[in-house]
Amino acid sequence: MNSDCTLSIDAMGGDNAPRVVIEGLALSVIRHPKLRLMLHGDATILEPLLTQFPGVHKASQIRHAPDSIAMHEKPSQALRRPDRGRSTSMSRAIASVKTGEAQAAVSAGNTGALMAMAKIQLRMIPGIERPAIAALWPTVRSESVVLDVGANVGLDERQLLDFAILGEAYARVILGIDKPTVGLLNIGAEEVKGTEAVKAAAADIRASGIDMNFAGFVEGDDISLGKVDVVVTDGFTGNVAIKTAEGTAKLIGHYLSSAMRRTWMSRLGYLLASGAFKVLRERLDPRSTNGGVFLGLNGIVVKSHGGTDGIGFAAAIDLAVD
Predict the structure, then answer these.
(1) Using CA atoms, how far apart are residues 318 and 290, in angstroms rounded to an integer?
(2) CA separation (Å) from 42 to 17, 66, 67, 90, 92?
């Protein structure tokens, strides 16, 4: 990072906040020495915690937010609070982006509440109805953008078309691809398969006249093969797909670890190939690609997995910086 960047952090969001958040930031300030942080949360908790992390303490300023949103809390409940949730660490983290004090907000908190508050405070880009969470998915080629991975349970054909446009633009910026290929996730490549919304979205993309490299339908196994640069789907399907992939990666890691410990010959083989196994372990680690961006907002908001650790939260910070 060649210039100063200020991020607004929901320090109280996530299953194990605020410690995991601060542990992640401790890695981030090493990777990005010019990074500046605005930590929103309970100052009585954050101030003594920061004394254990001098690097974060030096790069941060605490903005006291007395309340936080629970992971199980419904978005409607958060918005029905007397002050509409404005005293929460999540709301104030987003507000700092709205006022221009920070370039992006990062939270590992309640996804639904984060989407609702970001949509209310930052508003949508004209013509876009809903935000989508875009995640980077490791593939055999490199990486692909997958959206939506959790913000919207169901989408119609117009919204799928919107997400195709957003995802294509995002891939150009983040992946540096001049002409990304775009595909709609479906249960088959044939035109007659899929829901009516998916089939109509494909027809609308082709008829729109938009200069897009549309590859048609892709199936679930095409994602990790990197068949296209952008995979478009609804948030229900996308969330199931990405969590299934993460679980499969952990299962492969477990099988591999068990096999390497089985006999003395396998242990010796592991030692001889330890460098290769280290690379494989890093590639299979879901924490390395943690974080998704809400696309369609008038501002940058990054959602981290609520149950991640410091390494995963640091990856979400990397994404926000990018």
Answers:
(1) 10
(2) 11, 5, 7, 12, 12
The first and second tokens of residue 45, run together, are 């908790």
Helical packing angle, 43-50 and 19-31, nearest 10°: 50
Contact partners, residue 213, CB within 8 Å, separation at least 6: 168, 179, 180, 181, 182
Cite the beta strand spans of the chain per DSSP E: 5-10, 35-41, 60-64, 104-107, 132-138, 143-147, 181-185, 213-218, 230-232, 292-295, 300-303
CA dist., res. 264 & res. 267, Å (int): 5
CA distance 218 to 210: 20
> How much is the pTM?
0.85
pLDDT per position as a tens digit, 129-149? 889 999 888 888 888 999 888
How many Cα atoms occupy the beta-carbon half-sphere of 154 within 13 Å? Answer: 4
Q: Which of 221, 210, 222, 235 is nearest to 295 (CA)?
A: 235
Distance from C-alpha of 102 to C-alpha of 36, rounded to nearest angstrom:
9
Q: What is the tens place of the pLDDT at every residue in 87-129?
A: 899 999 999 999 999 999 999 999 989 999 999 999 999 999 8
